[in-house]
Automatic annotation (TrEMBL), chain A:
It comes from Loigolactobacillus zhaoyuanensis. It comes from the Bacteria. CDD domains: TM_PBP2 (cd06261). This is ABC transporter permease. Belongs to the binding-protein-dependent transport system permease family. CysTW subfamily. PROSITE patterns: ABC_TM1 (PS50928). It is found in: Cell membrane.
Length: 270, 367
């Protein structure tokens, strides 16, 4: 038994070493070198000493927060409605489908839709609002980011709602709860883990969105993701790029810890 | 009836093409233990769900203390339900589960505490209030579910097969406890089960259901002793059912013999069905017997021997005997006239009751 277990774990361990552990170590290692290859802590000094980087950090967190809130507000009711429909697996598939299409393709599609003569502006003209500058605004950036992230929020929430026994809702109503009380005291607490998983799945990747900030946001929104890209590809300051990477990784760990499932106290008592 | 609490009149429930309930009429009196008994899919749970307000009747009226409640939402009804899967809230501990209904009504914290602890005491779970639901056994969860329902002091408690997930021994113990609880609280219980033993053990009154209809209503002894038709006889307990013919009042013929019986009020030579309960059949010698049979199989059940046998005409007879027999042996079976239960074909419950009343009245006059 034991031998087989070890054997089957080989791909996983290899993957972990090559694509998780090694890159992490490399990033941390790189972050201690300045642009001239000198071992130094100056990258961290620059980062925490400059208003620019701190503002970028704030921007990243702020936009990730807004994107998460927007997706949550759309996804929760959607997931709830989906779980009540008859052909829920079909509807769910239709929501998952767009995630199979390359992100870049979707971004370019939105450039087309939001451009000066795009479909969105045609519609605005039709309803009498006239053509607007849609592309390269913060609003369009949030819109497209939310569009891309929504399936990742709906899935865990849908699963949590779907797993919930329907008799619990009946029990709550039976005990005198109104629809709102049933939602706030039974349904929402029981689906909170799904919401947490969804928030993780949306917030963390949103921290380092860089392609959309450029293609859709027109660099109006500068996040840490944009900064990393600039440092690696344009200024070639790998040390500084790595430092920002380390900060992002730490931020992600913090988020995972905050939203992660914690054991209920007393759960293990005998 | 003065203290009628629930009344169903002409209730139908249609799911698409299928009729889950056909013309259900019944009344429940205050303070009694009622059981809806029937095989799965007979509509018993649908009645419960309609009464609790989880689903609507397609037609007919449901009255609570004389007031129509068809359109009253579930959270406004003075009934509480114990669910088949208990439906305890997994994110709340025992105390908060039981306190759920009271907390919604904005009851004072101190009152909630008193009532919850009292309810837990009633279901014998004192000291379990800060346990998590996942820490409890099936039987304990079941009792929390009961406590959570009765703490709201409902006028009617609905129980949807609450014992089906428990093992046999615990189930028997809970049957006794439920019955005692109902008598102590004095509220109406409507219990749903497919287990005839459970129904007979607990109920004041049983409704036997099949295929969306109530076939027979009566106290457990009536239902067991005077099943209205083949289905009820077969469903309630084990029975030997054979075809027969009424020769005259108190005279019946079956398996080629004439017997004295306790039934009357039928046409001369009317074809009927005869029910003989296996425990009413007594093993005896062929000479002293009313019917000679040959033993085919014998199974030891602990308290009794379950003997399958056949008579000369090939009819099978199931006998529950405390005495042992032997396979292949010729034995006699003996039964009293009262043990023969005669059932007419297609007799409705009203006709059945009227007929019983007519000749049982005669008996009284003779005495």
């Amino acid at each position: 038994m034991k031998k087989y277990n070890t054997f089957y774990s080989v791909p996983y361990v290899l993957w972990l070493l090559l694509f998780v552990i090694a890159p992490l170590l490399l990033i941390v290692y790189q972050s201690f070198f300045d642009i001239n290859g000198q071992l130094t802590l100056s990258n961290y000094q620059t980062y925490f000493g400059s208003g620019t980087y701190l503002r970028m950090t704030f921007n990243s967190i702020w936009y990730a927060f807004i994107i998460t809130v927007v997706t949550l507000l759309i996804s929760y009711p959607t997931a709830y409605w989906l779980s009540q429909t008859r052909h829920k697996q079909l509807w769910l598939l239709l929501i998952i489908l767009p995630t199979w299409i390359n992100l870049l393709l979707k971004a370019y599609a939105f450039i087309g839709i939001f451009s000066q003569a795009g479909a969105a502006n045609h519609f605005f003209e039709f309803i009498g609002l006239g053509a607007q500058q849609i592309l390269f605004t913060k609003a369009s950036f949030i819109f497209v980011a939310a569009y891309i992230e929504i399936p990742f929020m709906i899935l865990p929430i849908f699963n949590a709602i779907d797993e919930m026994k329907p008799s619990l809702v009946n029990a709550s109503r039976d005990l005198g709860a109104t629809n709102w009380q049933t939602f706030s005291k039974v349904i929402f607490p029981l689906t909170l883990n799904g919401v947490k998983a969804g928030v993780q799945a949306v917030f963390i990747p949103s921290l380092s969105l860089f392609m959309l900030t450029r293609l859709i946001g027109g660099n109006k929104v500068i996040t840490l993701g944009t900064a990393i890209e600039e440092h690696f590809l344009v200024t070639q300051n790998w040390g500084m790029g790595s430092t920002i990477g380390v900060v992002l990784i730490v931020a992600m760990v913090v988020i995972m810890f905050v939203t992660g499932e914690r054991r209920k106290k007393g759960g293990q008592r005998k | 009836m003065a203290n009628t609490i629930i009344k169903f009149s002409g209730v139908n429930k249609r799911y698409g093409e299928t009729m889950a309930l056909k013309q259900i009429d019944f009344e429940l009196e205050q303070g009694k233990f009622y059981t809806l008994l029937g095989p799965s899919g007979c509509g018993k749970t649908t009645i419960l769900r309609i009464l609790a307000g989880f689903t609507d009747a397609s037609a007919g009226t449901i009255e609570f203390k004389g007031q129509k409640i068809n359109d009253l939402p579930a959270n406004k009804r003075k009934v509480n339900t114990v669910f088949q899967d208990y439906a305890l809230f997994p994110h709340l501990n025992v105390y908060d589960n039981v306190a759920f209904g009271l907390a919604l009504k904005k009851t004072a914290k101190k009152v909630i505490r008193e009532k919850v602890l009292e309810a837990l005491r009633l279901v014998r779970l004192t000291g379990y209030d800060d346990r998590e639901i996942s820490e409890l056994s099936g039987g304990q969860q079941q009792r929390v579910a009961i406590a959570r329902a009765i703490v709201n002091e409902p006028e009617v408690l609905l129980l949807d097969e609450p014992l089906s997930a428990l093992d046999a021994k615990l189930r028997t113990a809970m049957q006794v406890e439920l019955r005692q609880l109902q008598q102590r609280l004095g509220i109406t219980f409507l219990f749903v089960t497919h287990d005839q033993g459970e129904a007979l053990a607990m109920s004041d009154e049983i409704f036997v259901m099949s295929d969306g209809e109530i076939l027979q209503q009566g106290d457990p002894v009536d239902i067991y002793d005077e099943p209205i038709n083949h289905f009820v006889a077969d469903f309630i307990g084990e029975s030997n059912i054979v075809k027969g013919r009424m020769l005259a009042d108190y005279q019946v013929e079956f398996v080629g013999h004439q017997f004295e019986c306790a039934d009357a009020g039928m046409r001369v030579n009317e074809p009927v069905e005869i029910v003989l309960r296996p425990e009413d059949l007594v093993l005896t010698t062929v000479e002293k017997s009313k019917l000679a049979v040959t033993v085919d199989t014998q199974v030891f059940r602990g308290d009794i021997y379950e003997i399958m046998s056949h008579d000369a005409a090939g009819n099978e007879w199931l006998i529950h005997s405390v005495r042992k027999s032997a396979v292949g042996q010729q034995v006699g079976i003996y039964f009293e006239p009262e043990d023969i239960h005669v059932m007419r074909f297609g007799e409705s419950e009203e006709e059945f009751d009227a007929r019983l009343e007519s000749y049982e009245g005669d008996d009284d006059e003779e005495v």
